[in-house]
Amino acid sequence: SPSLPPLPVQYADFALWQRQWLQGQRLEQQLSYWRRQLAPPLPVLELPPDAGAPGGSASSNSNSDSCSSSDPCSDSSCSACSSQSRPAAAAYHLLPAPLARNLLALSRQQGATLFMTLLASFQVLLHRYSGQTDIVVGTDVAGRTHSEVQDLIGFFINQVVIRNSLDGDPQFVELLKRVKHTTLEAYAHQDAPFDRVVATVNPARKADEQPLFRFKLVVHNTPQANFGVDLQIEQIFNEHFENKFDLLLNIYPTDSNIQIAAEYDPLRYSAAYIEGFLDHYHFLLNEIAQQPYQELHALVASINHFSAGRESADHTRYYSTYREKAKHVKRKAVARV
User: Fold this and answer.
1) Under a CB-based contact definition with an 8 Å cutoff, are residues 271 and 240 in contact?
2) CA triplet 80, 81, 85: central angle to 5 degrees?
């Protein structure tokens, strides 16, 4: 019977090697980048209050307790650091195949990845909601930067922070260049563990709030594995989770569409608020795919104009269709042999 080839390293080997490799000047080089990139004042992104949510405000339910420790806090009695998990709810949306193809084509044309285009668009939308131009968003990196660990089972994921300035009313393609530059720099300094970055930057921390960022976008584009047998595998969405962020967009590109699963804090935002946000994201991506040279103020004006007619019958019918399609995909997301 066929046997699996031996692995070049085991997970324990990698963990030991990484601990020995990432120290001294190499670690300081990584951390110095984050010290500069996340230099104060580090913005706290605030969306407009949602009167339909129990909290009634994006900030009203935040505990005022804070932690000033310069190191990861180990005090179990510290209310600012003891727990950052919060109740969570989810909303789903689907971007159709033509839009998915157009976004991919735009990304390639601009020498960027689909992730960079989706992230730049997300930051435009956060600017429209908040009015802020210094936008901080988190994302995950796979952490498998060495070929020896590509096929290794184990947890390698790390979080990185993408901070971009939207000052100067840039065209979207110019903003995309900024996002590309910042993202590649973050990738080049992804080896610094997130907790070490937090300790280095030492931001003020409040209870039930993630340090450094409260909004996150993750594109799940790992190639589907070929197990050498006749299997059909589909994405399963987790129905039981706790969210650590105000809003987390999980994005799943497929051959036929782009699926979005938004996890959010239901104490801050109502389901209608998040559905409206996802509608705006869908609309904005359409605008960008069709006219990527629009300036920031024009994109914001387009969203505002779109929002003013959001309750029209045609609009409701169009976007509710993609919400229902996303729910249908979620219900069918089971693994079948």
Assistant:
1) no
2) 100
